[in-house]
Design goal:
- The protein is of the alpha/beta class.
- The chain is built from 23 helices and 19 strands.
- Strand 6 and strand 7 form a beta hairpin.
């Protein structure tokens, strides 16, 4: 898994730049306007994996002008996060490389080395995020890079600080010693991966020929090896024998003349293989099958429209990767602008295929101008690259698990408007994306909620619907954002010209102050509030209902027994919770979590303070622990709350 990359003097990237790409998830997207360097990142990785001996790096023009000799050299250094079990270590050489990988990883997980340059802080901040979910005991953090016009390995600014390579720590070593120590290490690491890069200008006719290197990577087969298997050594021997006999007969006729090879006199296996590829595979081109009333037609991909050609590239990659899960190498598929030349209605399906591939242990990387994919990504990230009027680059990584909520929180912290990439364009594409998803023949369904904690609960509570009904969960960060999305979707969804098949269910908390929404009842777009009724427990009521007391959040509407079990997990850390549990009896007749205890006002405030602690992060921690307990076999037969059953009925109606 590539989590980030250091680039220096590569294309538009002048100086040392740190570009975060992933927090360990399988789908990586790079967004931004034209000319900010999105494609440059994918191209740099192509040089890193597939063009090891190439001297033709596209160097930054300013760097060329200033000179790239001495210490001012360009380099490419990807950062990998690799599970230790995924590296080969059966052979002696492999085990030696693995030991060196562990030493390098231990250094990178823990180093605090720093010189002038913001890229250090950016790398360490990204590393801290990785540490939240990946332990250095199980995962390797590795930088493996290349310098311009050199063949050896390079570790960026850390190149002279890897003191574990000799027996005397803190004594400086020279580059020759480093190269000797790591000889073959670069090749060992990248041999576990196949990097396929599809630029915008890719010729689909050439790319999809079976004999190309890209297609062989997709098939995870080497055509030469396959042909060699088909040709028995005895067959080759017999061919040479018969041809030798034929040539000798010819020479007997010529008497004074003889046929002699320049370098060899017999066919070798590579000779035969190359001719078979030339004669058999080069004449075969990919055709698109089209069924009509008159039968099945076949159209060469070269004759398809620009959009259809782009779609064909994705379809080919999708088919091979989906049906070939038992591979020798891990695929990293990088695509420039998958949406290029496609109508917006086709973009959704294009991205849906790529996102689904990331669930099968592949890493998918895209650069794109189309942001409609953002809400359907359950596991992924977006790297936004922007430039200001001074040509200064800003790079920010978003975790797409709750990206709209992240944007809402960012808006609170940033003075002035956010860049258009985060604000207007992402929102407009979001609305279009949801709209197109609910009018498909096999539609998506949506639950739009306020916060990440709700999404965590809903992922467990609606697990079956996520699988069977293409349900997607979208936390937006605030009631105002939920209302805004609702109002933007209402007009097109109720428009009779749209054949809407999916459901959008908007759910918010009940606050102290009454909220007003221009709500119109519609079977396909619903807006309701969570509210606790003394007699009936937790309910979903009309968003404009007059019922405002008591204020209700999702933590008040949980299963009472599971809520109590989860609360017990936090009492050692919070004395206020411990006192509540010790001083109050569990209500065996509780209808929801709100009525588990008969609490005084001060104790209710203590519960509220707990959930608001750590800037609300306790809500997320509690939700994760609740789901963990919910998923244990002991609790699998616990029945759904009424309000949850209501949502399930709405989705399945």
């Amino acid at each position: 898994m590539i989590t980030s990359i250091f680039l220096r003097h590569f294309k538009i990237y002048k100086g040392i730049n740190f570009i975060p790409l992933s927090e360990g998830n399988g789908f990586t997207s790079i967004i931004g306007e034209n000319g900010v360097g999105k494609s440059s990142v994918l191209e740099a990785l192509d040089f890193s994996f597939n063009k090891l001996n190439s001297q033709g790096w596209p160097i930054n023009n300013e760097a060329k002008y200033e000179g790239i000799s001495g210490e001012n050299f360009p380099y490419i250094a990807p950062v990998f996060l690799i599970k230790k079990d995924n590296l080969r270590k059966t052979k002696k050489d492999d085990l030696d490389f693995f030991t060196k990988a562990e030493k390098l990883s231990n250094f990178l997980w823990n180093t605090k080395y720093k010189v002038k340059g913001k890229f250090f802080d950016e790398f360490y901040n990204h590393r801290d995020e990785l540490k939240l979910n990946y332990s250095e005991e199980d995962y390797l953090l590795l930088i493996i890079g290349r310098k311009y016009n050199t063949q050896g390995i390079f570790f960026g600014t850390y190149n002279k600080n890897l003191d574990f390579i000799n027996d005397t720590p803190h004594i400086e070593y020279d580059d020759a010693e480093l190269q000797k120590y790591f000889k073959g290490f670069y090749e060992y690491i990248i041999s576990h991966y196949s990097y396929l890069y599809i630029p915008v200008e890719t010729d689909v006719h050439t790319y999809t020929k079976l004999e190309t290197q890209e297609m062989q990577k997709l098939m995870d087969k080497n055509i030469q090896s396959e042909i060699e298997k088909a040709i028995k050594p005895a067959t080759l021997k017999q061919i040479n024998k018969d041809l030798d006999s034929f040539v000798k007969d010819v020479e007997n006729v010529l008497e004074e003349y003889q046929y002699k090879g320049h370098f060899k006199n017999s066919l070798t296996m590579p000779d035969l293989v190359s001719k078979i590829i030339e004669a058999y595979f080069s004449i075969k081109v990919l055709n698109k099958k089209s069924t009509s009333g008159s039968g099945t037609k076949r159209i060469p991909v070269s004759e398809l429209s620009s959009g259809e050609k782009r779609k064909a590239l994705i379809d080919v990659a999708y088919s091979f990767l989906l049906n070939n899960k038992d591979r020798d190498s891990h695929i990293i598929l990088a695509i420039d602008e998958p949406e290029a030349s496609l109508h917006i209605s086709a973009c959704y399906g294009q991205f849906e295929k790529l996102i689904s591939l990331s669930k099968f242990n592949h890493q998918i990387m895209v650069s794109t101008h189309w942001y409609g994919y953002l809400p359907i990504v359950i596991n992924g990230s977006a790297t936004s690259i922007t430039k200001n009027e001074k040509n200064e680059t800003t790079i920010k990584l978003f975790n797409l698990y709750n990206y709209r909520e992240t944007i809402t929180q960012s808006r609170k912290k940033v003075k002035g408007p956010l860049p258009v990439d985060y604000n207007i364009k992402s929102y407009n594409d979001l609305v279009q994306s949801i709209l197109f998803s609910v009018i498909q023949e096999n539609p998506y369904n949506w639950i739009v909620c306020e916060g990440l904690s709700e999404k965590i609960y809903f992922e467990a509570l609606f697990k079956q619907e996520i699988q069977d009904c293409k349900l997607r969960l979208l936390p937006l960060g605030s009631f105002k954002e939920v209302r805004k999305l609702y109002l933007n979707l209402l007009s097109p969804i109720k428009d009779p010209d749209y054949n809407v098949k999916g459901k959008v269910i908007c759910i918010i908390d009940t606050d102290n102050e009454r909220v007003e929404v221009n709500y119109e009842k519609n079977k396909n777009i619903i807006f309701e509030r969570l509210w606790n009724d003394k007699a009936n427990g937790s309910l979903l009521i009309d968003v404009n209902s007059n019922s405002m007391n008591p204020p209700t959040e999702i933590e008040d509407c949980l299963n009472p027994f599971l809520y109590y079990q989860t609360l017990l997990e936090f009492i050692e850390e919070y004395d206020s919770l411990k006192q509540i549990v010790e001083n109050n009896d569990f209500n065996e007749n509780a209808l929801n979590s709100y009525t588990v205890f008969d609490l005084r006002d001060s104790e209710k405030q203590n519960i509220k303070d707990f959930f608001d602690d750590k800037e609300g992060f306790n809500k997320i921690l509690f939700a994760r622990k609740y789901v963990e307990i919910f998923n244990k076999p002991l609790f699998k037969d616990i029945s759904d709350m009424k309000w949850i059953e209501k949502i399930k009925n709405q989705i399945n109606k």
